[in-house]
Amino acid sequence: xxxxxxxxxxxxxxxxxxxxxxxxxxxxxxxxxxxxxxxxxxxxxxxxxxxxxxxxxxxxxxxxxxxxxxxxxxxxxxxxxxxxxxxxxxxxxxxxxxxxxxxxxxxxxxxxxxxxxxxxxxxxxxxxxxxxxxxxxxxxxxxxxxxxxxxxxxxxxxxxxxxxxxxxxxxxxxxxxxxxxxxxxxxxxxxxxxxxxxxxxxxxxxxxxxxxxxxxxxxxxxxxxxxxxxxxxxxxxxxxxxxxxxxxxxxxxxxxxxxxxxxxxxxxxxxxxxxxxxxxxxxxxxxxxxxxxxxxxxxxxxxxxxxxxxxxxxxxxxxxxxxxxxxxxxxxxxxxxxxxxxxxxxxxxxxxxxxxxxxxxxxxxxxxxxxxxxxxxxxxxxxxxxxxxxxxxxxxxxxxxxxxxxxxxxxxxxxxxxxxxxxxxxxxxxxxxxxxxxxxxxxxxxxxxxxxxxxxxxxxxxxxxxxxxxxxxxxxxxxxxxxxxxxxxxxxxxxxxxxxxxxxxxxxxxxxxxxxxxxxxxxxxxxxxxxxxxxxxxxxxxxxxxxxxxxxxxxxxxxxxxxxxxxxxxxxxxxxxxxxxxxxxxxxxxxxxxxxxxxxxxxxxxxxxxxxxxxxxxxxxxxxxxxxxxxxxxxxxxxxxxxxxxxxxxxxxxxxxxxxxxxxxxxxxxxxxxxxxxxxxxxxxxxxxxxxxxxxxxxxxxxxxxxxxx
Length: 710
Hints:
The chain is α+β, with helices and mostly antiparallel strands. It is built from 27 helices and 21 strands. α11 runs antiparallel to α12 (189-209), α12 runs antiparallel to α13 (213-227) and α13 (213-227) packs across α14.
């Protein structure tokens, strides 16, 4: 498949500039050195594109970079048969047309020299400075001879870490991949597919997050053509048929121009064709496509206020489709994108989508971080950076989160899987913390994700949350603009439940939870924060009700349990049942379970009757003292603001430690709180329950009676 066949929908170049023949330029580059007083002819087009965005740019460093690149790559050929120098030239030209500044273009010319030639990083640093050296190093691949199968994921890890310090690293990588995808037709089909999949799963989401739409859309079409050739050919035929059928968008565009001209609003109205994958997705969403579905209207104005002026005129003179309105100017996307989106009904009843933005917004929408120039250049108003850190206005929340969780995944396969899963989340929500800060989270994130995003591993002891002032479970999915207050237990012994993994969307949360569960796999299941004890996972309960004889206990002295319960069996371990959490001076009985352990239940516990029905013989149990003990209490209450805080304060005032707590979702304005508490003396229990009942809104406090499973 030729590069042309895989890219018929690529955006056309700026009018007036001839298409560049890189094959011819490559041959020119091999003819020998050029005069020192002018730029080489081979990068004349790069210089022209660069000066269009930066008229005062010093091009001397580009000349020196080209001379080094051409000399070091001399004699090397691409698989397509072209001189290798055509590749760095093409990458540099892509970035120049997007408006990249001189340092980025210099690094783009040199980006393969360290990887593929004898040029060293020290030589790049000496000749072109520390910034260019950093960018070249950031995009240099790791050797397979050193890393084996882990070379690709570890190379991406290295690039992402470098991008965290300088986003221009990823700009160069995206342009590099775009040119490679354009010329991918010379590769074997299986290699084309492998490269296209990595491009789809990793590079395209990164381009989206960095706002480089011009690169993202072309990469999407190239990957689409390789991975889904039948759908691609069908879409191509639809676009060709639409082009021959007429131009309904042109009629609406002329009407819009007339309306804005009469309103004395200076605006440029353009028709923006959808790229191939966008047309395919529109077809899947809408079924049969209409003529206006193959493009959008783009209205460009001078000032932000003019955007809303245009919107008002369109909604006044046309019938708007209100459900299609989105304001990304007041609330920009996480990738710097700003625009107003709306849709209006044309004279024949057809619906046309309209994008309204300023010329500067359009530049950023197309080029993203590339349009920002050098984000690290000092300015008079810039605040001093924290020592050891670079002040980076372009590092968004998603990149910071990615850099944090990747440190916890030394395994390349885990990193690679987590990276693809993270990048698959293509939308982001912003939630507000109770202290006024914000958290950026992927769409669909829950309170579990918010807890780990805010507190890191401290979130292991999270017991609940308030969302917009109301008590909520940790599984609650957060929406854009929600305010979340996370509630933490004071007992570090509590930990996450395996169920939390069902609600965690971010790799940081999943990695932290999985790590904790793995580290405590051999421990007795704790009373998990935010969840009541689960008898299905507690070892004593299934054993206590399971069939089969009980193994006799070995001889030895009577053993006192850690909970002050004593049985008259030699060398026996005693455990308190999690279903009824007995404490002194409760009337209790015990049953021998597998391993010779005696599980102690309150006599009123439903599990006692079930075990007796199964023929289990009770074991006499007595309390040695009424000292330190752990108990689970259930508080039934009417839902009201501040209830959880008041209950927790009442427990703390009584001098009792909270091990863990659970707040169930409100039902008919009623809320159930389950607390596992550590008492220094069991005699304090009646007084504690009385204090909890006195909290306004609480109508009952009782001992837990969990259903034990057989």
